Amino acid sequence: MFPIRATLVLLLALAAAPAPAQTAVRGRVLLADTAGADSLYAFARWRAPGDTITRTDSARVGADGRFAIPVPAAAPMEIVVDTRGSVRNYHPALARITAAESAAEQAFVLVPRRWTIPAGRFAGQTVPISADRARRPVCEGCVAFWLRVEGFRGPSWFQSWDAASFPLRIALDRENGVPRGAVPDSSAFWRIARRMEDDYGADLFRPVRFADADPQDDDIDPNNVILLLADATLPISGLTTLLSRGGRVTYGTLRLRNRALVLGHEGPRVVTHELMHALGVGHTCAWRSVSADLLRCPDMGSDELTPEDVAYVQVLYRVRNVQRAARARWGLDAAIAGERAILLGRPAD
Ligand SMILES: [Zn+2]
Hints:
The protein is an alpha/beta fold. The protein folds into 2 domains: 4-113 and 326-343, Immunoglobulin-like, CATH 2.60.40.1120; 116-316, 3-Layer(aba) Sandwich (Collagenase (Catalytic Domain)), CATH 3.40.390.10. The chain has helices spanning 4-16, 131-134, 186-200, 267-279, 307-326, 332-343, and strands at 23-31, 40-46, 55-60, 66-71, 77-83, 93-97, 106-110, 114-116, 126-128, 148-149, 157-158, 160-161, 168-172, 205-208, 225-230, 238-245, 248-256. Strands 12, 13, 14, 15, 16 and 17 form a 6-stranded mixed sheet that branches. A 4-stranded antiparallel sheet has the order 3-2-5-6. Strands 4-1-7 form a 3-stranded mixed sheet. α3 crosses α4. The longest helix is centred in the C-terminal third of the chain and has 20 residues, at 307-326. The protein is elongated, with a radius of gyration of 23 Å. The model is unreliable at 1-19 (pLDDT under 50).
């Protein structure tokens, strides 16, 4: 989609007869880790209305992370942030913007191509990160691991909780259990949850009383809480549903078929799988995973977190947290498009 070599050749050709630069598309680049900055450049490609050729220009990303590429006024364009060096620590970021958007600064959070797990059972392990794999649905029309929530306009966000919500509050809900009063065995549930946290290397969950999970007066739903229920009507072992607004999860329910399920041999797998859903991720068949869709890839299943599970959740949260804090529009979406178009030679979408 955006071959860098072709871009450079075109640049040389354009140098002889430059288009009049009337303005600039501006941007800034943030890194989702501290692996060390590549020698980064921003490239813009556009075709002005009535123009017959596609024009390209580029600019080096400065030490302050900012860039400005001279362009004629207002045109829809593609912007790519990538390295020109031989080592690529981050996925190329590819953004398509409208003419109106080209007037505003475009902020990118670059997604690392390798993630070293900082703590927990896999501390020190480095996992290759492919944004494309994390977005590969387990079947046509099925969910992927990173779940994208389409907004009406502007950025598409990936389903996740605010950083301030952690450790996520979990409350036993007796009132809505089936049969009424039934709840999963709490101590067994929390043993599995604590094991998951030890594997992950962070505090993810904390128990709260149901009374403390009540909604505020002006809210319909409980806030910042996951309700844990037993539900004998479930046709499957477990089911987690989340409520999110603009990708920002505010409430969830985690249902297990009965009180004893957490005590049996399938307890660790089912509870860890559902707690991964509670963190906001879907299913995958792209690596061995506790989040594997066992109907579609039974050989990829795991009873506990794998290094890939930990790394892909940590990258999801790191990128979204940097994005939200900096109000940066481009993150995982641009990395997925960039990896597909530039590294894999496939359509970006
Ligand atoms: Zn599932």
